Amino acid sequence: MPTVADAYRKFQAELEQGRPHVAPREALEMIELALNRADLVGKGQVALERLDFPAEYEAVIAQMVQRRVAGEPLGQILGYAWFYGRRFSVTKDVLIPRPDTEVLVVEALARLKGSERIAEVGVGTGCVMGTLLAERPDVEAAGFEISDAAAAVARGNLRALGVDGRGRVEVRDGMDGVEESFNLLVSNPPYVTDDEWEMLEDEVRDHEPRLALTGAEPNPDGLLFYRRLAAWGSDKLRPGGWLCVETGWQQAQAVRELLQQQNMAAETAGKGKIWHAITVTKDLGGRERVVCAQRC
After folding, report:
1. Strand boundaries in the chain, DSSP class E
2. For the chain, which residues make up each domain, given as ranges?
3. pLDDT (tens digit, 9 = 90+) per residue, 112-125?
4. Which of 50, 60, 71, 230 has its CA 20 to 30 A from that of 133?
5. Rounded CA separation 262/202 (Å)
6. Which of 258, 277, 274 is closest to 266 using CA atoms?
7. What's the pLDDT tens digit per position in 183-221?
């Protein structure tokens, strides 16, 4: 009987031949799902050589491989993606969690000091909000998501994490009309420009929701939602609260300047500064990825 290692080598070779640049262990994740196991990816080569591979699962995995070669993202094929060490359900209605967004979580966690209230705009899978709630059992959160379908996915993930009692997801476009105040506002908003949309890889452009990438309105410079978040933050954050946002890899300085311009406009109007302690944090690839600012 062939082993799991044999099956992995076969299917991974088919993946790499049909679609360059696939991750090294994608086939093993497919095998893990088909066999209803959760421990294969972490096993070494010797252990995989000792595990039999039941032939009846070959057709199921071959179909997954075909979908992947055709450009469908791995997360949609598996129905889940890992984020900050936790598994989140994924559908075609949500953006698949990316490792870069973990930097946003790290920066947000560093600014949570106690029993505080979090808001998130653009919840998607709920990976950011759910992770913050799971990591800080003394905080509560409210998420605002424009898509009914995405909100349903997020609520399911919060339930799976056991944090839904401290977090709610509302279907609404941003924070207009929200009467609460918060200690932290986080967002990974749509920041792909209209021109960049046409140049995205096919597995993103053809399979993930455009609403989560560019938004529902024209966004020629990619900064539309940062302007809105800055306004919502100035209105909804408590003194000393924090705004933390993920940005595109070339946008961080523009977002920093946007906040500084908001300060200048407020001071000119005699209202005093809105933001201070504006910081930019790089991701693991060395690209500027997260901007945080504290409400004065």
Report:
1. 80-83, 86-89, 117-121, 140-145, 167-171, 182-187, 237-246, 275-282, 288-295
2. 4-70, 81-295
3. 998 999 999 999 99
4. 230
5. 37
6. 274
7. 999 999 999 998 999 999 999 999 999 999 999 999 999
Confidence class of residue 21 from pLDDT cuts 50, 70 and 90? confident
Distance in angstroms (rounded) separating the CA atoms of residues 181 and 214 = 27
Q: Please compute the mean of the pLDDT values over residues 24-49 and round it to a whole number.
A: 92
DSSP state of 165: T
| CATH number for the domain whose boundaries are 81-295 | 3.40.50.150
Compute the residue count for the chain. 296
Instruction: Report the number of secondary-structure helices (H) and strands (E) in the chain.
Output: 13, 9
Give the burial string for 90-128 (b: 16+ CB within 10 Å, else e).
bbebbbbbeebbbbbbebbbebbeeebbbbbbbbbbbbb
b (16+ CB within 10 A) / e for 185-213 = bbbbbbbbbeebeeeeeebbbebbbebbb
Comparing CA positions, the residue from 258, 252, 294 lying closest to residue 275 is: 294
- Rounded distance between C-alpha atoms, residue 82 and residue 175, angstroms: 28
Please tell me whether the overall predicted TM-score, pTM, comes out greater than 0.85 for this model. Answer: yes
Residue 285, judged by CB atoms within 10 A of its CB (0-12, 13-18, 19+), counts as: exposed
